[in-house]
Every structure is written in C-alpha cells, then in structure tokens.
Amino acid sequence: MPQFGQITPAQAFRLIGTPDAPTILDVRTAEDIAALPRLIPGARLLPHDQIATLTVPPGRVITVCTKGKKLSEGAAAWLRSVGWQAESLEGGTLAWEAAGLPMLPLATLPAPGTPWVTRHRPKIDRIACPWLIRRFIDPGARFLFVAPAEVEAVAERFGAIPFDIVGVTFSHRGAQCSFDALLDDFQLHT
User: Fold this and answer.
1) Which of 19, 132, 164, 167 is deepest in the core (most CB within 10 A)?
2) Can you give the pTM of this predicted structure?
3) Helices 178-185/124-132 angle, 10° precision
4) Does residue 33 sit in helix, strand or coil?
5) What are the helix and strand counts (H, E) for the chain?
6) What is the DSSP letter of 136?
7) How far apart are CA 180 and CA 56, in angstroms?
C-alpha cells in the first residue's frame, strides 16, 4: 500500500494513455538516467533542481526518480506547495521496471514537441498513430497532414518525422501496419 502522496506503478500504469492522464515528470539525475536510459511512456524529463521552473497550469502530476525516494518525494512536495495534485511513484523506475511495465528507450525518442508528417485524408492507421504518439511517446507532438507527394519534402524542411508512407521507418512492414512499427520500435508491447 502506498504511503501519503505516493501512487503504485500498477495504479499509474492504468492512468497512462487515458484522456485525463496525469503529467509524468522524470526527475532522475543524469547518472541515474545513464544507468537506466528509458522513460515511462508519456514522461517528460525535468531535472529535480528545475522543478520550480515548471510553468504549465497546475494539475495532476506523478514525479518519478530511480527509487521513489528523495528526488521524487521532494519534487512532489514542492509541486503540492504551489497547487499541484502531485504524487511520487512508489519504488520509482526500478519498481516500474520490476513490474514488467513498458518503458521507452531514450535513444529512440524524438525531441519533445517534434512534428510528425503524413498524407492528408487520414484513415485508420493515420488516426491511430497520432493517438499512440500523443498518449504514449510525446504528449507535445504536432501532426502535419499534407499532400502525399509533399510528405518527404515537408519532413525535411520542417524537421518532421514522416510516417505511414512507403520507404520511411514508421510505415508498413510486411503484414504489419505503421501502428505496429511504432509499437515495436518504442517497445510498447505489454
């Protein structure tokens, strides 16, 4: 049972990807991130010593560190003192990993807010992919829908990641669709 101001990994996992999912702030040190270079889906890196710089309006937040002790507890307490509904993740990333819950490899993650581009007139795969990206990979991602012939040029000019077109990383692979490619590459299978 979690202590005051804590949430278990199982409880937090059930919230990820829902419309009212909390903001997840990973406040680990650089050394701790190097030791486990993965993030909880949807998490945002924010060093613990920069917690006071958070400028978005208060809401529900889960703070995460390696063991769920001083860094995440202190960050959650700080945020509660300025009006946030803040909890720390019980046991931290080590408990999350031990529970077998998905984590995103940092090496594969685009910079937060990176635009993604695909063909206009979205259908199933081009609707599902943005949903997956926004809910689990990058909550701040932007999506550009353009003429099919312009996808690659727009990607190049706007620094966007192309998806669901032939010849790009996040596209159909054999019998699998682009959504499956994202699940595979970001290790989101559960």
Assistant:
1) 164
2) 0.85
3) 20
4) helix
5) 7, 10
6) I
7) 32
